[in-house]
Hints:
By secondary structure, this protein is mainly beta. It has one domain: Metal Binding Protein, Guanine Nucleotide Exchange Factor, Chain A. 5% of the residues lie in helices and 35% in strands. The protein is built from 1 helix and 10 strands. A 7-stranded mixed β-sheet has the order 6-7-8-9-4-3-10. The radius of gyration is 15 Å and the shape is globular. Belongs to the Gfa family. Keywords: Lyase, Metal-binding, Zinc. Residues 5-102 form the CENP-V/GFA domain. It comes from Mesorhizobium sangaii.
Amino acid sequence: MxxxxxxxxxxxxxxxxxxxxxxHVSYCHCGDCRRASGxxxxxxxxxxVDQVAxxxxxxxxxxxxxxxxxxxxxxxxxxxxxxxxxxxxxxFTLGAMDVPADFPPTLHAxxxxxxxxxxxxxxxxxxxxxxxxxxxxxxx
Length: 140
């Protein structure tokens, strides 16, 4: 696999390489992402899961409904999530990417849950709920 992009956790026990360009980069304002990240807003970059290779033995998973989040079992850094409703894709936290500046978000998702004191004055599209099309072609 020739890596186009790479990343990992804070302590280096989890590393990953991606041999594809992203298909989705966004901010997420949902409460679940806030709790998982500890931040008032999260940012993610999505790739085809079959183009990702992980190394290291510290990757841990936490399942919450249809979403499984991964993190480093040593330092606790959030790494990524997969959603069983969205087959064949993985979303990495921008903070886990080696060069997060390469992935400027292109939209805001779940602005219906955005914290009232958080102001992000940009011209990006804003979606009340998800911005990712489901397999049936709908955007809930």
